[in-house]
Amino acid sequence: MGSREESELEPRSGWTDDQVDRVIGNLLRFGLLISAAVVAVGAAIFLIRHGGETASYDIFLGAPRTYREIRGILAETARFHGRGFIMAGLILLVATPVVRVAFSVLAFLKRRDHTFVAITVFVLGVLLFSIFWLGLR
User: Fold this and answer.
1) Buried b (16+ CB within 10 A) or exposed e, 4-19
2) Which among 95, 75, 93, 96 is positioned nearest to 84, based on CA atoms?
């Protein structure tokens, strides 16, 4: 018995582990960079408009309702409000690992690895449930 050729060790259909790892690494890297850039733009806008104001720590007002809904955040971002950009950047930051898990489902489907498809779909379901169901309460 001789050693197997390298091509025999790779899956016959789908992506190799290295290809999947590269895509996942790029998804996480670019998701982080894009979200950080959006937050930085929002911080700059916020500081330009409100940097000279004195903070009042007597009364805690919390975030306005507009910033608790995606529609409101997108509307505030479209109006070039700093808080809108900051919140949009945070949404992108939270969405980055969710996109990574969704991509993993596709990668496992393409590799026909049904056990990991099931596990990853479950993980994706838990993530989406915790974001959309628990996050709205």
Assistant:
1) eeeeeeeeeebbeeee
2) 75
Which two tokens mark 105? 């489902």
Q: Are 124 and 105 in contact (CB under 8 A)?
A: yes
Angle (CA) 68-70-79 rounded to 5° is 95
Kindly state the helix (H) or strand (E) to which residue 15 belongs, with its residue range: none
Domain spans, the chain: 17-49+63-134
- Report the alpha-carbon distance of residue 38 to residue 40 in Å, rounded: 5
The tens digit of pLDDT for each residue in 22-50 reads 999 999 999 999 999 999 999 999 999 98
* Tokens matching residue 136: 């709205």
CA distance 79 to 133: 28
pLDDT tens-digit series, residues 93-129: 999 999 999 999 999 999 888 999 999 999 999 999 9
Among candidates 89, 91, 116, which has minimal Cα distance to 20?
116
CA atoms within 13 A on the CB side of 8: 4
